[in-house]
C-alpha cells in the first residue's frame, strides 16, 4: 500500500483532480490523503460539494486580492507540517497554478516523489499565460512522473530531455469529470427563459486579460448582442473582484445579457451543452468544449492546447475588439463555418485518464508488473 497525497486549491484543479481522488479511493493498493490549499475558497468548496470530497487538510490560504507571493509563501509554509506528519510516498499536483508550483516545491524540499497531472502543456511564452507558463515549466523540472494529457504534451517534455520512461500519455481528467456531469434531461430557469434564442456562453478571468483586453472583449460581446435579436450572452463571472468590476461596467443592464454568479460545474457543463457556442480565455473550457461538439472562440493570442485548434473546434481570436466582433459575427452568420467547427472529436481524453494515472503510479512503485497502455485518440 502506498500513500498518495493530492494537493489542489483552485476551481479547475479541483474539477480535474476530483475524478482522480475518487479513483485513488477505490484502489486497494493506494491510500489517498487529500490536501486543499483553498487558493480559491467558494469556487473550490462548490466543486468539493459536487463530487462529495472531504479534504483531510485545508490550509485555507485565500485572502481577498491576494498576491502571487502571498499565495506561494502561505502554501509552502502550510504544507511543511502536513507533509512531515503524513510522510506520503508520492505527492500529486495538477496543472499550472500557484498551488501547483508551491505544492511541488514543498514536496521537493521534503524529498517526496512528485507526480504531475496535466503535464507538458506549453506556449514557451513566459508571460502568456502569466504566471502559469513558468509555474508548469518549474513543476516539470521537479516532477518524477509526468502525466501528459496528449501526445503533443509528451513530446514537449521529451524535447526538454525528460526521461522517456517518466512521461506517460493519459488523456485529460477533465473528460473523466464530464462522464458524470452531463444530463440529457437537464433544466434551468435561465435556459428555459431563453429557449428560443442562441446562447453564447462567455468565461473570462486570465490575469493578462484584466484591464484593456477584457474591456475590448466585453464591448465586442455587448455589440454582438445588440446586432442580433435572437442572441443571448450568458456570463458566469469569476469571483475575482477585478474581473467583476469590468464586467459590470460593460455588461450590466441588458435584457439579453445574463451576468450571473459562477455556475456549479454540473450547471456549467450543461449550459455549455445547450450553448450555441462558447467564447473563453479559460484553459479547461478549451478541453471540455470539443467533447460537446461546441465551437470555441479563444480570447487569447496563444494557446497551449493546439490539438483543439488542429481539430477545428477552437479558433484563436485574440482580444482586439474589432477582431472579436468579426469572429462572433462570422460564427453567427456563416452556417458552413459553424458546422465545420461543430465536430465532436475529442483530442483530450476518453474519460479514463484517472484510471491510467493510478495504474502508472502502481507500476512506478512496483505494485503491478505490467506496464499500463497509454491513451490513444480514436480516429
Ligand atoms: C487562478 C490560477 C489560474 C486559473 C484560475 C482559475 C494562479 C496564478 N492562477 O487564477 O491559473 O486559471 O485560478 O479560476 O494560480 N476569489 C474569491 N473567491 C474564490 C476564488 C477567487 O474571492 O472562490 C477572488 C480572490 O479575491 C482572489 C482573486 O479572486 O484574490 C483571484 O484569485 P487567484 O487564485 O489569485 O487568481 P486567479 O486569477 O483566480
Ligand atoms: N467552470 C465552472 N463554472 C463556471 C465556469 C467554469 O464550473 O461558472 C468550470 C469549467 O467547466 C472548467 C473549469 O471551471 O472545468 C475552468 O476553470 P477556469 O476557467 O476558472 O480556469 P482555467 O481552466 O482557465 O485554469
From TrEMBL:
Its EC number is 5.1.3.14. InterPro entries: UDP_GlcNAc_Epimerase_2_dom, WecB-like. The keyword Phosphoprotein does not apply. This is UDP-N-acetylglucosamine 2-epimerase (non-hydrolyzing). Residues 23-362 form the UDP-N-acetylglucosamine 2-epimerase domain. It comes from Staphylococcus muscae. Pfam families: Epimerase_2. One of its GO terms (molecular function) is UDP-N-acetylglucosamine 2-epimerase activity. Gene3D superfamilies: Glycogen Phosphorylase B. Keywords: Isomerase. Belongs to the UDP-N-acetylglucosamine 2-epimerase family. The keyword Metal-binding does not apply. It comes from the Bacteria.
Amino acid at each position: 500500500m502506498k500513500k498518495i497525497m493530492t494537493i489542489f486549491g483552485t476551481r479547475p484543479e479541483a474539477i480535474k483532480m476530483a475524478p482522480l481522488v475518487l479513483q485513488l479511493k477505490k484502489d486497494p493498493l493506494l491510500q489517498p490523503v487529500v490536501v486543499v490549499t483553498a487558493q480559491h475558497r467558494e469556487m473550490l468548496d462548490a466543486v468539493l460539494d459536487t463530487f462529495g470530497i472531504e479534504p483531510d487538510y485545508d490550509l485555507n490560504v485565500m485572502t481577498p486580492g491576494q498576491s502571487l507571493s502571498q499565495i506561494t509563501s502561505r502554501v509552502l509554509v502550510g504544507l511543511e507540517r502536513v507533509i512531515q506528519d503524513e510522510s506520503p510516498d508520492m505527492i500529486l499536483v495538477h496543472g499550472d497554478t500557484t498551488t501547483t508550483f508551491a505544492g511541488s516545491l514543498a514536496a521537493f524540499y521534503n524529498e517526496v516523489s512528485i507526480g504531475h497531472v496535466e503535464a507538458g502543456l506549453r506556449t514557451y511564452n513566459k508571460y502568456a499565460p502569466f504566471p502559469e507558463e513558468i509555474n508548469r515549466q518549474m513543476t516539470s523540472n521537479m516532477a518524477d512522473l509526468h502525466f501528459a494529457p496528449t501526445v503533443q504534451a509528451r513530446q514537449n517534455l521529451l524535447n526538454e530531455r525528460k526521461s522517456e520512461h517518466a512521461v506517460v500519455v493519459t488523456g485529460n481528467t477533465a473528460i473523466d469529470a464530464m462522464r458524470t456531469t452531463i444530463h440529457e434531461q437537464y433544466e434551468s430557469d435561465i435556459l428555459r427563459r431563453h429557449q428560443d434564442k442562441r446562447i453564447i456562453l462567455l468565461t473570462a478571468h486570465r490575469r493578462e486579460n484584466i484591464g484593456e483586453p477584457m474591456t475590448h472583449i466585453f464591448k465586442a460581446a455587448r455589440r454582438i448582442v445588440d446586432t442580433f435579436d435572437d442572441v443571448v450572452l450568458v456570463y458566469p463571472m469569476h469571483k475575482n473582484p477585478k474581473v467583476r468590476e469590468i464586467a459590470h461596467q460593460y455588461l450590466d443592464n441588458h435584457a439579453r445579457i445574463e451576468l450571473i454568479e459562477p455556475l456549479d460545474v454540473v450547471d456549467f457543463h450543461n449550459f455549455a451543452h445547450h450553448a450555441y457556442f462558447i467564447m473563453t480565455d479559460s484553459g479547461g473550457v478549451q478541453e471540455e468544449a470539443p467533447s460537446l461538439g461546441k465551437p470555441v472562440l479563444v480570447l487569447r493570442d496563444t494557446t497551449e492546447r493546439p490539438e483543439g485548434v488542429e481539430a477545428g473546434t477552437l479558433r484563436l481570436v485574440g482580444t482586439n475588439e474589432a477582431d472579436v466582433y468579426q469572429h462572433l459575427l462570422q460564427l453567427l452568420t456563416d452556417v458552413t463555418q459553424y458546422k465545420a467547427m461543430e465536430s465532436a472529436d475529442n483530442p483530450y481524453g476518453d474519460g479514463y485518464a484517472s484510471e491510467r494515472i493510478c495504474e502508472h503510479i502502481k507500476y512506478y512503485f512496483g505494485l503491478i508488473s505490467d506496464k499500463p497502455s497509454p491513451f490513444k485518440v480514436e480516429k
